[in-house]
Design a protein that fits this description.
Blueprint lengths: L5 E5 L6 E3 L4 E11 L6 E7 L3 E6 L5 E8 L2 E3 L2 E3 L4 E4 L4 E6 L3 E8 L8 E4 L23 E8 L6 E7 L13 E2 L3 E13 L3 E4 L2 E5 L8 E2 L4 E8 L6 E2 L18 H4 L12
Antiparallel strand pairs: 1-18, 2-3, 3-4, 4-11, 5-10, 6-9, 6-11, 7-8, 7-10, 9-12, 13-14, 14-20, 15-21, 16-17, 16-18, 16-19, 16-20
């Protein structure tokens, strides 16, 4: 995985482009990150009302979808907001939508142990807390909950929804920065999430967090709802013992690849994707 570290860009900063390469000639696309050595990427795809066709992917890549707005019918199953799908053999996935629909789309090489996940209504799933909601092998802290959408027991890779209550965590709970030995991909569905060194992420924020890059401390006034993918191994957190300055309203100081650096701007008001 040679995609560059991205932390963070608001998707609202990016312009829509044509989506014909995804099999959607009248659709629009925002590319959030891409691996120049292959066709792996993450993007936001907007389908027009009454679209009936296929989302296409190069041979050999799995396709992962999360509905952001609207509703998508796949294999005769209707998935509404936050509906989820994972398809290993994803050369062509027939879909149907009655109203304009916006989808987070991800292409990745399948890993050993991957298996298809049928279209899922994530609203029907229970939020899990404590030991039951663990995504690291350790119980979740107070005020946190998860819904696991996909888990590969062979690699430890996982896709899940992650939510935190307001005023989380108390500043004393995370005095320093943190990192991981694997890639963590984040997309903000709602709320706000602060990394003290790079700024305050809001709805539509995107992160491709490379291995061993330090960020934080972290916290949230309002609480947050995230879609997270863990790639390259199971999720492990590593915390610094050195304290670092923290504010719930830090300046926007993103760490971005050159292709995004000139496009990024701080989101001053709530806006759609």
């Amino acid at each position: 995985m040679s995609r560059p570290h991205t932390c963070f860009i608001q998707s609202q900063s990016l312009q829509w482009h044509g989506a014909a390469a995804w099999g959607v000639p009248d659709g629009f696309l925002k590319t959030l990150s891409v691996d120049d050595s292959n066709d792996e990427c993450t993007a936001i795809l907007r389908l027009s009302a009454n679209f009936a066709g296929s989302i296409v992917s190069p041979a050999g890549l799995a396709l992962e979808l999360l509905v952001l707005e609207g509703a998508l019918q796949v294999d005769g199953v209707l998935t509404t907001q936050h509906g989820y799908l994972f398809r290993i053999d994803a050369v062509s996935v027939p879909v149907l939508c009655r109203a304009e629909t916006t989808v987070l789309v991800m292409r990745n090489r399948p890993r050993q142990g991957d298996s298809d996940v049928a279209p899922a209504d994530t609203f029907a799933m229970r939020w899990l807390t404590g030991v039951d909601g663990s995504v690291t092998g350790k119980p979740l802290g107070n005020g946190l909950a998860t819904k696991t959408l996909r888990f590969n027991a062979a690699t430890g890779e996982r896709s899940f929804l992650y939510a935190a209550l307001a005023q989380h965590p108390p500043p004393a709970a995370m005095p320093g920065r943190f990192t991981h030995p694997m890639v963590e991909e984040l997309f903000m569905l709602d709320g706000s999430y602060v990394f003290g060194d790079v700024g305050r992420m809001q709805r539509g924020a995107y992160v491709w967090w490379r291995e061993h890059v330090w960020h934080g401390p972290a916290g949230s006034v309002s609480g947050y709802h995230l879609f997270i993918r863990v790639l390259g191994g199971p999720l492990k957190n590593e915390f610094s013992t050195e304290p670092a300055a923290f504010s719930y309203h830090p300046p926007y100081r993103p760490v971005l690849p050159a292709a995004l650096a000139g496009k990024a701007h701080e989101l001053t008001e709530d806006a759609s994707w």
